[in-house]
Design goal:
heterodimer; A: mainly alpha; MetI-like fold; two-stranded antiparallel sheet; 12 helices; 2 strands; B: alpha/beta; D-Maltodextrin-Binding Protein, domain 2; 2 domains; eleven-stranded mixed sheet; 13 strands; 40% helix
């Protein structure tokens, strides 16, 4: 009994730093943000209160709601494209690259993480510009007569995001694939399954935890990102983080910014609820 | 009660600067973050200048509103908004005789803006113009003398808009024959259609760096809201970049610096202000790596190279000063309406 108590105390003692940290730097700030979201502006003053006006505005003011829709559309597009590109890349590294070269292949895969996020975004702006590498190459081989408008568009934002998140997803899917015994595929084929049926009914379901974990992380990081749409999107459209920054940095309307942030967190929570069944963070 | 306490906690965490011994806390614009400007002051007084960038007077005042007295020592602010900050009790009086305003360009003393009831609360430090920047090899410079050319269809998709609602809405107003001082709840709706037309003709709406990048790389050929502050840092590498004040006029931006009310180190804060408006500080500020601009103190000319003065168009200033208007000074409701119009334009 005494031993049990001592173990309990030790357990709490070990957990306490992380718990205190989380309460102090996540729970309390989050509650403060929620409280602020119910305040409102009177002229240039913030007035504390319990007012749903900010939330009503998010869903009734088209320019605000459109930013939410833009964020969701871009995030879903990025997540789907990244998964489609990352799965075969991870499979090639896991199954085709000799084990001794796999570390190098993974290192190359994560190289983009080593550069500054802002620098990488501006680099893409130069690559996709009218006089950028892409347009110059297409003009050079005669595929186009006029430069394509690639920079400062949603496409540019998606390309910038996909470049980053394919690498992230490759890691999570690779971690899943490398643990799969080849006997699963052999057993399926012994039982008469073709290559497609083996992939569709055996391999793919077994890699879902890695796919969903990476996809969820992609969703969370992408929908909350401000830098990439700000630099690459050219304000061709607003995303939710951009709108939050406008409310904070320009209007000083912290209650509205808080309400938008709470809505953003709600979307992420819904995404988590939707894929929690397959989420396996231990695959990371 | 708990909700109010949490709201107060949120506001407190938003506003508190980093504290350190021998630190001057300054709310500034990005041009003050250039080490070439700040390092000489730090070395001379043996202090660290803690710089926090902000954008837009509303955001700056919100930060002060949510801070404790003494958190901030100096503040850079739009010259046209000094009165607003004084009214809110955010700026402290500065002894007028401690400032070298006798050396300033007369138009930049701006006593009507920097003083309230005969007391000085801020001093102009830098100015310039929000007009039209362009690549003269890609567009007809004669077209840039008339704002109507921007929405004529000739330059559709070749225009970038500087992402700051006050100067661009001011330019749009001038294009409609409305003086910037006359932008109010009654006249603002008249700007919606021309603003949306400009947006339709434009390729992007972007911040300082992205606007510079777009003009430099040929992504766009025109930046509405640009000026010497946008093209000067690019001029050495690309002499094709130019700017002009169209016949409808342009906007003159002017930034002031003042001592924040409640500072616990008023002497050091004043010395920082004095350094910034000294010829040395002015020359460094004029050529800041973030953006260039004309120094308010004319004596900075002695420390600027001929090339730098040429880029700043030192000799044309009398003409430019005569043809430009100050930023709009909207009341709170009009300011909110202007920002809402801007957000709608961005999401068009």
């Amino acid at each position: 009994m005494t031993l049990h108590r001592a173990e309990t105390r030790l357990g709490w003692g070990l957990v306490a730093p992380a718990l205190i940290w989380t309460v102090a730097f996540f729970v309390l700030p989050f509650l403060a943000m929620v409280a602020l979201s119910f305040a409102h502006m009177e002229g240039r003053e913030i007035v504390a209160g319990f007012d749903f006006g900010n939330y009503v505005r998010v869903f009734t003011d088209w320019s605000q709601f459109n930013a939410l829709l833009n964020s969701i559309e871009i995030t879903v597009t990025v997540t789907v494209i990244s998964v489609v590109l990352a799965w075969p890349l991870a499979a090639i590294i896991a199954w085709r690259v000799p084990p001794r070269w796999q570390r190098l292949a993974l290192l190359l895969a994560v190289l983009p993480f080593w550069t500054s996020y802002v620098v990488r975004s501006y680099s893409w702006l130069l690559v996709l510009g009218k006089n950028g590498v892409v347009n110059q190459a297409l003009l050079g081989v005669g595929l186009i007569a006029e430069p394509l408008e690639l920079a400062s568009t949603r496409s540019a934002t998606v390309i910038g995001f996909v470049h980053f998140f394919v690498m992230l997803l490759t890691l999570t899917i690779y971690a899943n694939l490398i643990q799969l015994s080849p006997n699963y595929a052999r057993a399926a084929q012994d039982l008469g399954a073709g290559r497609w049926a083996t992939f569709r009914h055996v391999i793919l379901p077994l890699t879902l935890p890695g796919v969903v974990t990476g996809a969820f992380l992609t969703f969370v990081l992408c929908i909350g990102d401000y830098i990439t749409p700000q630099i690459l999107g050219g304000n061709a459209e607003l995303t939710l983080p951009q709108l939050i920054m406008l409310q904070m940095g320009r209007s000083g309307n912290f209650p509205m910014a808080s309400a938008l942030s709470v809505v953003l967190m709600a979307v992420v929570t819904l995404a988590y609820a939707g894929c929690s069944r397959w989420l396996r963070l231990d695959r990371l | 009660m708990a909700q109010r306490a949490l709201t107060a906690l949120a506001l407190l965490t938003l506003a508190t600067p980093a504290f350190a011994e021998g630190t001057l806390n300054a709310l500034v614009w990005c041009d003050h973050t250039d080490p070439a400007l700040i390092a000489p002051f730090e070395e001379k007084y043996g202090v660290k200048v803690n710089l926090k960038e902000y954008e837009g007077t509303a955001a700056g005042l919100a930060i002060l509103d949510q801070s404790q007295p003494g958190d901030w020592d100096v503040m850079v602010i739009d010259a046209v908004d000094v009165g607003r900050a004084v009214e809110a009790g955010r700026l402290a009086e500065i002894p007028a005789d401690a400032l070298p305003t006798a050396d300033f360009f007369p138009e930049l003393v701006m006593a009507g803006n920097n003083t309230v009831d005969g007391k000085t609360y801020a001093v102009t430090e830098k100015f310039g113009y929000n007009t039209i920047s362009f690549d003269k090899t890609k567009v007809d410079p004669a077209d840039m003398e008339d704002m109507a050319a921007l929405t004529s269809g000739k330059y559709d998709g070749k225009i970038g808009i500087y992402d700051y609602y006050l100067p661009v809405l001011g330019l749009v107003a001038l294009g409609q024959g409305i003086a910037t001082a006359d932008i109010n709840a009654k006249t603002l709706p008249k700007l919606a259609e021309p603003l949306m037309a400009l947006r339709k003709a434009s390729r992007q709406v972007s911040d300082v760096v992205s606007s510079q990048t777009a003009l430099a790389t040929g992504e766009v050929d025109i930046i509405v809201g640009g000026g010497e502050w946008l093209t000067a840092v690019l001029a050495q590498d690309n002499t094709n970049l130019d700017w002009t004040i169209p016949k409808q006029g342009g906007l003159r931006w002017a930034q002031s610096i003042g001592v924040v009310a409640g500072t616990t180190q008023p002497d050091l804060a004043l010395r920082f202000v004095q350094y910034i408006v000294s010829p040395e500080g002015q020359a460094a500020l004029a050529q800041s790596s973030c953006y260039w601009g004309m120094p308010a103190n004319a004596k900075a000319a002695d420390l600027l190279s001929d090339e730098a003065k040429a880029v700043l168009r030192w000799d044309q200033q009398p003409d430019y000063l005569a043809r430009t208007q100050l930023y709009p000074i909207p009341d709170a409701a009009t300011d909110t309406a202007m920002q809402d119009m801007w957000t709608t334009m961005l999401n068009q």
